């Protein structure tokens, strides 16, 4: 279990990149409450996570090119049935652990779930499926995020202003320093800022 420590109320900004999706929702909620407490008034928290809305829309529109950066080993299977499902699982898992030759049954389950669920339930179902199919891996994501989900949690944590940002577009000049910030998969990422 992640040990969340309390920090003094003295920080002017905080940054999280590709971490929150690795934690279950209860821990994410605790982390963001502690982040809120640790920041001074009028400070900024910047969060970068994989953008599940982008992946969902690419999957829905059958846009193979969106997923090509994720799994070069599966690229040879791009014309096979369930390729897009395996690529979506790879995106949500955050790890290139699937192979279409051996994991096609996961593709079947994802395709079936898509036909009967709305977006949020569908993404929750993928989290369950990847957790059960690859339980031996500690490095798979345990959560998904889009702007709406992250905004709700941030507001519940106490932040009064939450807004979508962009690659290299922080309101904080320090956090516009690329590649120190925002350097991981900018074309697949969601950038959100919140102020206290």
Question: How would you characterize this protein structure?
Answer:
- The protein contains 7 helices and 4 strands.
- Helices cover 39% and strands 15% of the residues.
- The protein has a 4-stranded mixed β-sheet with strand order 1-2-4-3.
- The mean pLDDT is 92.
- It has 196 residues and is an alpha+beta fold.
- The chain is elongated and about 55 Å long.
- The protein starts with 10 loop residues before the first strand and ends with a strand.
- The protein has helices at 25-38, 52-60, 64-67, 83-93, 104-116, 119-133, 147-156; strands at 11-17, 39-50, 161-164, 189-195.
Quickly describe the structure.
The protein is α+β, with helices and mostly antiparallel strands and 196 residues long.
What's the structural blueprint in terms of helices and strands?
Layout: E1 11-17, H1 25-38, E2 39-50, H2 52-60, H3 64-67, H4 83-93, H5 104-116, H6 119-133, H7 147-156, E3 161-164, E4 189-195
Parallel strand pairs: 1-2
Antiparallel strand pairs: 2-4, 3-4
Helix pairs in contact: 2-4, 4-5, 5-6
Radius of gyration: 18 Å
The low-confidence parts are none
Number of strands: 4
- Strand/helix succession: EHEHHHHHHEE
Categorize the overall geometry. elongated
The level of helicity is: 25-40%
**Strand order of the main beta sheet, please?**
1-2-4-3
Distance between the termini: 27 Å
Kindly report the average pLDDT value. Answer: 92
Count, helices: 7
Determine the structural class based on helices, strands and strand pairing: alpha+beta
Largest sheet: 4 strands, mixed
Give the percentage of residues in beta strands: 15-25%
């Amino acid at each position: 279990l992640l040990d969340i420590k309390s920090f003094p109320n003295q920080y002017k900004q905080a940054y999280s990149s590709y971490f929150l999706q690795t934690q279950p929702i209860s821990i994410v909620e605790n982390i963001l409450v502690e982040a809120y407490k640790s920041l001074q008034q009028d400070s900024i928290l910047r969060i970068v996570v994989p953008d599940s809305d982008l992946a969902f829309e690419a999957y829905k529109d059958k846009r193979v090119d969106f997923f090509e950066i994720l799994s070069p080993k599966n690229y040879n299977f791009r014309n096979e049935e369930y390729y897009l499902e395996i690529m979506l699982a790879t995106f949500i898992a955050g790890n290139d652990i699937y192979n279409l030759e051996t994991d096609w049954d996961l593709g079947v389950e994802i395709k079936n779930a898509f036909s009967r669920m709305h977006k949020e339930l569908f993404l929750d179902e993928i989290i369950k499926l990847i957790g059960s199919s690859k339980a031996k891996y500690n490095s798979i994501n345990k959560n998904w995020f889009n702007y709406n989900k992250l905004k709700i949690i941030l507001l519940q944590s106490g932040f009064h202003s939450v807004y979508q940002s962009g690659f290299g577009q922080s309101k904080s000049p320090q956090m516009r320093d690329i590649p120190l910030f925002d350097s991981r998969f900018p074309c697949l990422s969601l950038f959100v800022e919140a102020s206290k």
